[in-house]
Amino acid sequence: GGEVNRPGRTPGSEIAALREKHEQEMEALKSQHRETVEEYEAEVRRLAAKLSEGADPRKIADLEARLKELQERLEAEREQHVAEIAKLRANSEENLGNLEKIRRLEDEKAAMQRSLESKDQQLRELDAVQAQLRDKEYRLFEANKALDEARATHSASLSSATRNLEHEVQGLKRALQDKEQEHEAALRSLAEEHRRDAARQVAEVESQVAALKADLEARDRRAKAEALEAEARGRREAEEERDKAIRELKARESALEEEREVVKRHAVSAQVLGDLSNKVDTVAARAVEREERIGKQLDKTLKDRDAAVS
């Protein structure tokens, strides 16, 4: 495994340090391997030099055996070196993976720390609220206790006051019933009096209506009689005016005829005849106007009579 994460160092710096350490270890192994190989190669060269000098066949056989042994040891060292490098690389990868996990855990730890701090703040606020609630509960308990003591102290007087109040309520109920009965009796009396007054007023109104009807009928009869009388009087006056106008017209015509005869006899001038003719026309027009005026007066009299009758 890797080193323990020390305070003040981040997971990223730990990974960089671990990578640097692994590179140093790799370089050390490579250097050691190179030294071992160089030693083996020097030994091989030394043995090869001895073989080239033409030594004893037994020594040659020993040298060849020694060379073979060195070659085998060199191959074993090489395999061991490769295995150590693979192991070191595997450990490095494992340590890097562990450091990545540590970094994620550190991030999660920081998030959890922030969440815990927020929850701690909420808990402190909740503790404050609970303290306020406990204080209010205590004060409520004290108030209830004082109320119970006051209730126990004044229970006797309260019971007496309640009984007195019940007696007063009963008395008020009886008084209310008496007032309701009196009110009902007064209402019945008032209703009876109202019915009598209404009957009397109806009788008076009916009597007044009958008197008015009789008066209207009498007035109608008088109006009809007066209208007939006025109509007759108007007719008489109209007839008299007409007769008078006719008589005057006839008299004027007679006078005019006489004047014409006189004119004829005395051979008056044409101007005099014209003046006489104008006078005759004027008299005739006046007679016609008088007849129209008499007719209009008669019509007015008849309309007035009809209006009075209606």
Q: How does this structure look, described?
A:
The chain has 310 residues and is mostly helical. The protein folds into two domains: 11-149, no CATH class; 224-309. The chain is 94% helix and 0% strand. The two termini are 137 Å apart. Mean pLDDT is 73; it is low at 1-8.
What keyword list fits this structure?
single chain; 310 residues; 3 helices; 0% strand; elongated; disordered N terminus
The chain-level structural class is: mainly alpha
Give me the oligomer status: single chain
Note the main sheet.
Answer: none
Number of helices: 3
Coiled coil: 15-266
Keywords: Coiled coil
Annotate the secondary structure layout:
Blueprint: H1 11-52, H2 57-266, H3 270-309
Helix pairs in contact: 1-2, 2-3
Quick synopsis:
By secondary structure, the protein is mostly helical.
